[in-house]
């Protein structure tokens, strides 16, 4: 078990290839050890993703819940289950995300503090209308400063997303929000392909 699963500068997120109901995600640290295990409940009217310190699911370390049942601009609260305090939230930019995916990073008072955007509008259009074989890449910014990068690794059998916080030398982004964003991108954005 990783004593500080949110203390690394890089991660790899794997989405389980075939699961009949719900979703399973494994988040690995830079050494390839399991840092977090995520479980998305099936048949829920609202998205509900729980992150645990291990596959035994004994210690829940983060919770991601949608605020509304169906919403094109859905907002997902990221909560620390130990304190029940909201770390922040991630809001999908509804109509704009139909062309180029973009998410807003909100602090714990719902103030916009940053955003995560798909790499290129041209590539986004190619992915949507011609082929989904081009891996997605995202860049995150806070106060105009780069804080993270997501890179989808092309694999036809499993979704793998590398998460890199090394650009965040000022420590602007709470790693819990960044990891929640990576898991959401794997869970939510992958459905539209």
Would you give an account of this structure?
With 193 residues, the chain is mainly β. It is 11% helix and 40% strand. It has one domain. The protein has two helices and twelve strands. Strands 1-2-3-4-5-6-7-8-9-10-11-12 form a twelve-stranded antiparallel β-barrel. The longest helix is centred in the last third of the chain and has 13 residues, at 175-187.
Entry keywords:
193 residues; mainly beta; 2 helices; 12 strands; 40% strand; globular
The whole-angstrom Rg is 16 Å
Report the portion of residues in β strands.
35-45%
The secondary structure category is mainly beta
Describe the strand arrangement of the main beta sheet, using strand numbers. 1-2-3-4-5-6-7-8-9-10-11-12
First-residue to last-residue Cα separation: 34 Å
- State the helical fraction: 10-25%
How many β strands by DSSP?
12
Mean pLDDT level: 84
Low-confidence stretches: none
Total domain modules: 1
Oligomerization status of the protein chains: single chain
Number of helices: 2
Based on Cα principal axes, name the global outline. Answer: globular
The largest β sheet comes out as: 12 strands, antiparallel, barrel
Order of H and E elements: EEEEEEEEEHEEEH
């Amino acid at each position: 078990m990783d004593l500080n699963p949110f203390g690394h500068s890089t991660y790899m997120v794997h989405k389980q290839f075939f699961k009949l109901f719900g979703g399973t995600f494994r988040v690995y640290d830079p050494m390839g050890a399991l840092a977090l295990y995520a479980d998305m409940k099936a048949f829920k009217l609202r998205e509900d993703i729980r992150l645990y310190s291990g596959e035994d699911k004994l210690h829940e370390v983060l919770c991601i819940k949608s605020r509304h049942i169906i919403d094109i601009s859905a907002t997902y609260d990221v909560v620390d289950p130990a304190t029940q305090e909201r770390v922040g939230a991630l809001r999908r930019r509804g109509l704009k995300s139909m062309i180029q995916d973009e998410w807003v990073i909100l602090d714990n008072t719902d103030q916009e503090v940053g955003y995560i955007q798909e790499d290129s509008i041209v590539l986004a259009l190619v992915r949507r209308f011609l082929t989904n074989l081009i891996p997605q890449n995202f860049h995150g910014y806070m106060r105009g400063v780069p804080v993270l990068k997501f890179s989808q690794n092309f694999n036809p059998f499993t979704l793998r997303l590398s998460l890199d916080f090394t650009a965040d030398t000022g420590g602007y982004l709470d790693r819990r929000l960044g990891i929640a964003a990576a898991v959401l991108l794997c869970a939510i954005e992958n459905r539209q392909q």
